[in-house]
Write a structure and sequence with these properties.
The complex is a heterodimer of chains A (100) and B (663).
Chain A lengths: L3 H21 L3 H26 L3 H31 L13
Helix pairs in contact in A: 1-2, 2-3
Chain B lengths: L8 H16 L5 H25 L7 E11 L8 E9 L1 H24 L6 H20 L3 H19 L6 H32 L4 H8 L11 H16 L8 H4 L5 H10 L4 H8 L1 H5 L2 H24 L3 H21 L3 H28 L17 H15 L5 H15 L5 H26 L13 H7 L15 H16 L8 H10 L1 H12 L1 H28 L3 H8 L1 H8 L4 H49 L6 H24 L1
Antiparallel strand pairs in B: 1-2
Helix pairs in contact in B: 1-2, 1-4, 2-3, 2-4, 3-4, 3-10, 3-15, 3-20, 4-5, 5-6, 5-10, 6-8, 8-11, 8-13, 10-15, 11-15, 13-14, 13-18, 14-15, 14-17, 14-18, 15-16, 15-17, 15-20, 15-21, 16-18, 16-20, 17-18, 17-23, 18-23, 21-22, 24-25
Classes of the chains: A mainly alpha (100), B mainly alpha (663).
Chain lengths: 100, 663
């Protein structure tokens, strides 16, 4: 049995990777993927705790997160396409105006 | 007790007049304002007369409860305190009542003529009526607190009227000076009241005096009553312009002349004398306080009289004369002859009111000029003014049988013979009488005799003419007599100045006041029979010095007009000192005013206000701005920097939680 702390360290590492990517990357799609990475890092800690405490609540929570993440992905990608069509760039530094 | 006298009407009537004129006068015509002003002051006088008519000696003292005011604690219980709106009438307040309303009404009439062309006509009458209200409150109060209300109220009215032509800088600052100097006196008065409350638990005249009565006189040393007495005297010094607080009164002449007559000669300034006389029970048991009163009064009488000799402004001479005569009244009070003081107060109200009104008529005649050197020979131009002013001069100089003679002689005799008196007071009093006669005849001769000196300076005097003679719109060729509305009050007052003293014959005036002053009068009656010849001798001396003063003035200012300048040159240094009023104003300015201004400027303004208060506010604002400026940098508008802050923040929170967990 792998100890709980291993999962948590991995979860923290994934989350930190997501945060770092979110902060340093300029490409919207990469930022988007970083967000997914953070979500999944959190998901991992949820399931790890659920397994550790033998409670289903954490796993149910993870399903919810996945559903929301999927919805977010569709909306997000749609926005990205829209942005790319109007601005012809995916660099966030150049999309800092809401109005054209 | 007969039916109610409705005393409350007397002060309320002028208050109503003040309110009507004050609120509605601006839009009313001058006639309407005059009618209202005269009606309400005249009605107060009429009611006072009817009260005097209806009341009999058996009814006095009469107290009239109007409304309850300050009540603290359970009535009658220890530690309780009550001061109600109650009016109190006895012989003393009856005399004051008649003097205030009577002279006040005459001066109201006179003002109609004198102030007619002033643009703020309605304001003048509103203030004048307001003054009457407060003065009557002061006189009729049955406790010290209500008296204090009147006391402060007349101070306010005085301030408003001195600064009536407030656009003129000197008038505005004279008003301020009067107010501030009076504050110093009021401070003493207030502390005296606190002492009375603390030790007697009441401010009601009858209650306080009933408790003071059994106390033995503090002959061996100063005690509570001496302290109260001296503090009351400090208050009286402020209001009645005695040394060392007399400096405001000469400056108060910046006000319109009727104001000088009513407030600064006839009524308000005598409030101190009234207050001391009212508190005679306290003073009689505090010989040291009495001596203080007598010494202050005597010194003031002499001191002001010497200044009066050198002044050339007609109103300034009268102002110093007023200070000097008030000194006489205090001298009388100080030797325990309160009724003589009140007697002089009454006659003084007549002749000094008349002198000021006549001076106003002179100023009116020559178009706003107040310098006596530019007058002269006015006798033939304004005969009625000359006649009335001559009578007043005879009265104040103490020439029998005019009013001033009787009262002044009474004071001098008391100063000599009373158990509290001394020949020193008498001697200084006689010297002052001589000086009084001299400067008054000097005024009369300079103004009315010789040749008119005004014509050539008329053009030159135009500048001061605008405000000082605010009543003279038409141009000035020759001096001209005042209108009838001004002359009639002069004549009535002249009549009173002639016969007003006759009530004092055979000590009738004193006996009238006996129920108030009681024991003092008895003691002095005993002394009187003992040395009738002395009294006649002293009377002869005081009459002689009066004539001597008049003669000297005649020699110096009529027959040998070159002499005064020579004498002045001969006395060079001393003359200049007196001419500059002994540099008292300068001394006060050096000793008190300047340190106060400097201290206020450097410590209070530059130190406390700017360094502490302003700086703490400014620094708080600057600090907030500096912090905000730093914090503003976080909001760069760059989305990723926000995300960075969020990440850093959560990292801190997590680190904290971990640290708490580990600990």
């Amino acid at each position: 049995m792998v100890p709980l702390s291993y999962y948590l360290v991995l979860s923290g590492f994934l989350f930190a990777c997501g945060v770092t990517g979110f902060l340093i990357k300029r490409n919207i799609i990469t930022i988007f993927m970083s967000i997914e990475l953070m979500l999944n890092g959190v998901n991992l800690s949820f399931v790890a705790f659920a397994a550790h405490w033998h409670s289903l609540a954490g796993q149910v929570f993870v399903f919810f997160v996945m559903v929301v993440a999927a919805a977010e992905a569709t909306v997000g990608l749609a926005i990205i396409i829209a942005v790319y069509r109007t601005r012809e760039t995916l660099n966030v530094d150049q999309v800092n105006l809401l109005k054209l | 007790m007969t039916s109610s006298l409705n005393l409350w009407l007397i002060p309320i009537l002028p208050l109503a007049g003040a309110a009507i004129n004050g609120f509605l006068g601006k839009k009313s015509s001058r006639t309407a304002v005059s009618v209202i002003g005269l009606f309400f002051s005249g009605a107060a006088f009429a009611w006072a007369l009817s009260v005097a008519w209806r009341v009999s000696a058996a009814d006095l003292p009469y107290a009239e409860y109007i409304a309850h005011w300050i009540r603290y604690g359970k009535m009658g219980a220890a530690g309780s305190f009550a001061a109600d709106f109650t009016l109190y009438l006895d012989q003393l307040s009856l005399i004051m009542l008649l003097v205030v309303t009577g002279v006040g009404f005459l001066i109201h009439i006179y003002s109609v003529g004198y102030m007619w062309d002033d643009p703020s006509y309605y304001r003048f009458f509103a203030y004048l009526n307001l003054f009457m209200f407060f003065m009557l409150t002061l006189v009729l109060a049955s406790n010290y607190l209500l008296m204090f209300i009147g006391w402060e109220g007349v101070g306010l009215a005085s301030y408003l009227l001195i600064g009536f032509w407030f656009a003129k800088d000197s008038a505005a600052s004279a008003g301020k000076k009067a107010f501030i100097v009076n504050r110093i006196g009021d401070f003493g008065f207030l502390i005296a009241l606190f002492l009375i409350i603390q030790h007697f638990g009441s401010l009601d005249f009858t209650k306080v005096f009933a408790q003071v009565q059994p106390i033995a006189p503090e002959t061996s040393g100063a005690g509570l009553l001496t302290a109260i007495g001296i503090l009351l005297m400090v208050g009286a010094c402020g209001k009645s312009a005695q040394i060392p607080l007399y400096v405001w009164l000469p400056d108060a002449m910046e006000g319109p002349t009727p104001v000088s007559a009513l407030i600064h000669a006839a009524t308000m300034v005598t409030a101190g004398v009234y207050m001391v006389s009212r508190s005679h029970v306290i003073f009689e048991r505090a010989p040291m306080a009495l001596t203080v009163v007598a010494v202050i009064g005597t010194l003031t009488a002499l001191f002001a009289a010497t200044i009066g000799i050198t002044q050339t402004d007609i109103k300034k001479v009268l102002a110093y004369s007023t200070v000097s005569q008030l000194g006489y009244m205090f001298m009388a009070c100080g030797v325990g002859a309160f009724s003589a003081g009140i007697f002089h107060l009454m006659t003084h109200a007549f002749f000094k009111g008349l002198l000021f009104l006549a001076a106003g008529s002179v100023i009116h005649a020559v178009g706003g000029e107040q310098d006596m050197r530019k007058m002269g020979g006015l006798r033939s131009y304004i005969p009625w003014t000359f006649l009335t002013m001559g009578i007043a001069t005879l009265a104040i100089a103490g020439i029998p049988p005019f009013a001033g003679f009787w009262s002044k002689d009474e004071i001098l005799w008391q100063a000599y013979s009373s158990p509290h008196g001394s020949w020193v007071f008498w001697l200084i009093g006689v010297i002052t009488a001589f000086l009084t006669s001299f400067y008054m005849f000097r005024l009369l001769f300079m103004t009315f005799f010789g040749d008119y000196n005004g014509a050539q300076v008329d053009e030159h005097g135009r500048g001061s003419h605008d405000h000082a003679g605010a009543n003279d719109a038409h141009s000035h060729g020759e001096p001209h007599e005042s209108p009838m509305v001004m002359l009639v009050p002069l004549m009535i007052l002249a009549l009173l100045s002639v016969v007003g003293g006759l009530v004092g014959i055979g000590n009738r005036f004193e006996h009238f006041l006996d129920p108030v002053f009681g024991t003092g009068a008895v003691a002095e009656a005993a002394g009187e029979t003992a040395s009738h010849t002395t009294e006649l001798l002293l009377m002869g001396v005081s009459v002689a010095v009066a004539f001597l003063g008049a003669w000297l003035a005649y020699v110096l200012y009529l027959s040998r007009p070159y002499l005064p300048q020579k004498i002045a040159d001969g006395l060079n240094g001393f003359y200049t000192t007196v001419l500059n009023k002994y540099y008292v104003d300068e001394l006060y300015s050096k000793l008190f005013v300047k340190p106060l201004i400097d201290g206020s400027t450097s410590i209070l303004w530059q130190g406390v206000d700017r360094k502490v208060i302003d700086d703490s506010v400014n620094n708080a604002a600057d600090g907030a701005r500096a912090i905000s400026n730093e914090a503003r940098q976080m909001q760069s508008g760059n989305l990723r920097s926000y995300a960075g802050w969020i990440a850093a923040g959560s990292a801190v929170v997590i680190a904290y939680m971990i640290w708490m967990g580990v600990r």
